[in-house]
Amino acid sequence: MRIEKVLIVDPIKGEFTGDVIIENERIKEVIPVDYEKYEQILMPGFVDYHTHSLKGIDTMHAKKEDFEKWANMNFEYGVTSFFPTTVSASKTQILSVIKNLENVGESIDGLHLEGPFINEEKKGAQNPAYIRNPTIEELEEITPEMVKLISMAPERQNFKEALNYLKTKKVRVSIGHSSAGYEIYKDAFKNGVDRITHFPNALSAFHHREIGGTGSALLFDFKVEIIADGIHSVPEFIELTYKIKGADKIILITDSMEAAGLEDGQYELGGLPVTVKEGVARLKSGSIAGSTLLFDKGVRNFKKFTNCTLQDLAKVSSYNAAVDCGIKDIGRIENGYYANIVLLDKDLNVLKTIFKGKEVYNK
Amino acid sequence: MRIEKVLIVDPIKGEFTGDVIIENERIKEVIPVDYEKYEQILMPGFVDYHTHSLKGIDTMHAKKEDFEKWANMNFEYGVTSFFPTTVSASKTQILSVIKNLENVGESIDGLHLEGPFINEEKKGAQNPAYIRNPTIEELEEITPEMVKLISMAPERQNFKEALNYLKTKKVRVSIGHSSAGYEIYKDAFKNGVDRITHFPNALSAFHHREIGGTGSALLFDFKVEIIADGIHSVPEFIELTYKIKGADKIILITDSMEAAGLEDGQYELGGLPVTVKEGVARLKSGSIAGSTLLFDKGVRNFKKFTNCTLQDLAKVSSYNAAVDCGIKDIGRIENGYYANIVLLDKDLNVLKTIFKGKEVYNK
């Protein structure tokens, strides 16, 4: 397959016109050609490592065939890699998710456990009944190789032991749903924790006499997940985060719940009822309960909110996430990488998606 | 006068060893010499454009001789330029301060009016009885040439008219004691306002769904006054501000009240009783009421909090303030500038102060 006369956007080499030759599953050759005009933009397929659900299919209940369906539906939004993401649940429920995900393959690169080792004070839409301290025994059971990422609160008892254990298993630890303040962040960062879950939601606030999780995430060299829906944080918050952090430290996610891609109405998240109105998902308490964001919309929003370059957009929408979680051979338009590619028009609408060299979506 | 074998710190040219020749009131020549060792650091004399009082002498009540005494006492702390600063008061009181300051000269470069055109909701230690909207009529009376700077809330009625009028008179406008949020800051910045008073105190808070005055000051290219006492904001807040803004956008101030340089006890600020305990000044309500910070201590703190270079320290402690308010020929160690100089030991303690070529303090 040869894709011709496109604007190629690589997170490392930048933006240039040219052709791309694909052979079998991989990019065989990227050929810069000085075209005067182009109609399409070619970027690495999007990577979403924090997504709970899509169109009614939910990580907590999905069977093998549901996960496969989800992976196929995701191509419409340009997503060629994702981690289904759990919420706080019993060990039995988590093990059941793990079992259902076995041998799914497709564009699912792993599993993200969001909770249950978080802080009740910052539970957001997580069910407090399942929130608990980590133990090495439980971690041994619930972190087989498919688990690549776990969002935890560093103030939980046994956090350090858990962290050390998870390092040996190469599971990435991300701070999320936490009341911790400056001192705990400082300590966690010193111990190698450098990633924040859906910044700045469910973190302690920024104040000038305690900079909190929000300020500490900005002060230290943390990477931060961002939900660019304009609801979880306003556009100018994202603009400021981009200004401070730069493109290398931002990872776009959807944090999508089951109403993503569906109409307003009644849904659930982790066993809790959720009302979606005008695309905003809330618990009865008013807490925001995940998003209904679709990844490509988040990409367009981020561009609009920050006025970033396309190269930076490629970093935040694919490359950074993959490198951060040690997922190899994706996230670049470069010889030898998997041919996971999204073709977009100049307004960044998805026209075509290619997954491992095969066209899997065509508008 | 020739000062020899010192480390010269100029905000523009940086740090180098050498000698400085002073003739009459000015620096005649800066001579770089490659000395292997030095014992003293030579910096531009400190500039404090937000200080209410020192050792019981208060801007609101001081007579001509009090202001002169204040200027002389300030040399001990390395301060060779300052603006006495008012608080919200009646027009009569403000006019009386202006009258008492006439022909004082010395190291007093002008007057800073903090209030009365501020927001009651963010009054801090200002007396609400005197807070009001600006009018051109009042501004005409209370801004003779000596008034160089006025701290105002941009959400006040007539703010834009006042701003336009003050621009014609070359009075700098600084946002302070304000409840305004993102939209008002955006608008103010577009209209040429680019300075913030004692950031982030008495501004609206930073939140991810309204970034407030605190977030807007960081997002837009505002210069910010900082009280580096570790009380008005914690060291890590100042570290983060330095990381985001850089040295070019920070202006150190003391915001000192009359207990500065004195013991703990009972004092007042703008007619309100203030208790100073362990160096922290508070109203009955618990609100912080100015600082007891001495400028040289703030300089040492800023260095400690941020680990900045001495060049950056020279920017934040003199040069930026002077340039910002259009005060000429001070803030640099450079041929032709006024010989306003502070000599420090390696721990940044003041050893000697020179004002317009004359030694005015010697430890």
UniProtKB/TrEMBL annotation, chains A, B:
Pfam family, one: Amidohydro_1
Cofactor comment text: Binds 1 divalent metal cation per subunit.
The keyword Transmembrane appears for this protein: no
GO molecular-function term, one example from the UniProt record: N-acetylglucosamine-6-phosphate deacetylase activity
Annotated binding of Zn(2+), by residue: E114, H177, H198
Domain named Amidohydrolase-related: residues: 41-360
Membrane-traversing stretches: none
Cofactor(s) for this UniProt protein: a divalent metal cation
BP-aspect Gene Ontology terms: N-acetylglucosamine catabolic process
Amino acids binding substrate: A125, N201, A202, R209, H232, I288, A289, G290
Catalytic residues (UniProt): D255 (proton donor/acceptor)
Alphabetical UniProt keywords: Carbohydrate metabolism, Hydrolase, Metal-binding
Family: Belongs to the metallo-dependent hydrolases superfamily. NagA family.
Record protein name field: N-acetylglucosamine 6-phosphate deacetylase
Lineage per the UniProt record: Bacteria, Thermotogati, Thermotogota, Thermotogae, Petrotogales
